[in-house]
Amino acid sequence: xxxxxxxxxxxxxxAQWISLLVVAxxxxxxxxxxxxxxxxxxxxxxxxxFGLPASWDPVRFTEILGGPRYFSxxxxxxxxxxxxxxxxxxxxxxxxxxxxxxxxxxxxxxxGYLMLGLLFPAATGILPLxxxxxxxxxxxxxxxxxxxxxxxSVSFSVLLFHNFxxxxxxxxxxxxxxxxCGYIRIYWYITLPLCLPIIATVGVFNFVGSWNSxxxxxxxxxxxxxxxxxxxxxQFQGQYGSDWPRILAFLTLSIMPAIxxxxxxxxxxxSGLTGGAVKG
Amino acid sequence: MSSVASGTxxxxxxxxxxRRYVDRKSLxxxxxxxxxxxxxxxxxxxxxxxxxxxFSFFDWxxxxxxxxxxxxxNYADVITHRNFGTAVxxxxxxxxxxxLIQLPLAMWCAIALAExxxxxxxxxxxxxxxxxxxxxxxxxxxxxxxDGNYGLLPAIGGAIGVDMPFVLGDKLWVIPAIMLVxxxxxxxxxxxxxxxGLQSIPNEVIEAARLDGVKKWQIVRHIKIPMIRxxxxxxxxxxxxxxxxxxxxxxxxxxxxxxxxxxxxxxxxYQFGILRMKLGFGGAVSVLLFIACVIVxxxxxxxxxxxxxx
Lengths: 280, 310
Known about the structure:
The complex is a heterodimer.
Chain A: H1 2-8, H2 14-37, H3 42-47, H4 59-66, H5 69-101, H6 107-115, H7 126-135, H8 142-167, H9 170-178, H10 183-194, H11 196-212, H12 215-220, H13 229-240, H14 244-264, H15 266-279
Helix pairs in contact in A: 2-14, 5-8, 5-11, 5-13, 8-11, 11-15, 13-14
Chain B: H1 2-5, H2 9-16, H3 24-33, H4 35-55, H5 73-80, H6 82-113, H7 118-132, H8 135-146, H9 152-159, H10 174-199, H11 203-211, H12 216-227, H13 229-244, H14 250-253, H15 265-274, H16 279-309
Helix pairs in contact in B: 4-16, 5-16, 6-10, 6-13, 6-15, 7-10, 10-13, 11-12, 13-16, 15-16
């Protein structure tokens, strides 16, 4: 029945296709001109905005790749995002486990308390947060950013883990307890291995959030050597003003890791970035 | 009743166990599992908000003791600030454009792309690409597109013989220009939410309607859209909270300019509270933003609850 009904009508009409292509052009043209712009001379940008560059001289790209800034800023971002993901996964899954599987007085209260974080974006209190980090000596350090980002991610990550743990068969935990297996070992050997899909979802969500974050590193980091890539690219742009070919080359190189990651793991990225939204 | 229960020792134990706050065996795991998140959350999410509320009643520059109590003066300063009205207005425009242009575009694409197919998947991934891109990078890409000297827009204008303004330096054009970037950046995200909703509609419903001769457009209007109401509510919520915290995209594009005409609430907070270290003023902005977010979040939960019950 389904095959017959599929043959009866085209899935997407040609008018729809044409409009989709218009939208696709709208999406793609900024990327396309950015990627080619790095090869063009500045005067060429104006007279030849859409065409291929007159020469494929990669001098700007090699200059950036050979310079000190590009790799160090990407590496800093990677360390921060990686640290944030590992710690937030651990911290949030432990809490969610305790709230979902251990019976104790006040568990509902604690869950409700942590869910308060869903009511407002953490950036709301960014100024007092800056004072707090200053007083605790956390400014200008990667650890400071990681710690705060883990704190920011607690509410949402605990929610996702908690929803997932609640679905696990209760018999599994009960059986392990009968065998005198403690909660810590249940968490580590039974629950965590079963929740790899949700770890992927939460991990991608927190990784992309950290990789792209701008406001927090902006107010926390002072030394250029510690800059994350969004700070690095803003500084680069400020320095070269309207030398667009150079900026576009830097921009292209900076967004390439994210795009490659997205294309390789698109299913996880899409479900990580929207799955939470749909389920939460 | 109690005399019966105390008949044997076993029953006494069974009766008292639930009254204990914590089982002895679970004490150590609890002490290990709960404090990390509770401490971090309290220290870096809850306390800053309480501090913001405290600061908002004082005049403080961030150094030395906090002594200068000023009552509601900071709130008065914020509300009467020349650019605060602009910031609030801009944030509302973002919401309006999201609801009137971005979400309909996302819905239209979702309806076309909710089917399965190789090309379809490719287009979906392409439309989602801007969303996972960092706001800063998206802002710089579009800063180039709009650049008055070397950008794409004047080049296009030159090709068709129209002299394009420097849109990001023009008070009239800067907001529409930013709105276009926002639509470009976020419509794919909303589209994915809608696609997830559309794919959860049972095929039989659509099939039955089609066999009854219902037209494609009517199926969309009377079956598909009503059936994904909760996805729409979620989308609207993200559009509103996104508008309330818009920051990263504005800084590279216009930095709030020209002459502070394109501030959003958070860039306003950054420009006039953080950069000038005016803790009281910034605290007052934070509290107002907090109240707005909480109202939106609570209203959203109510509406979503009602939608899901129907």
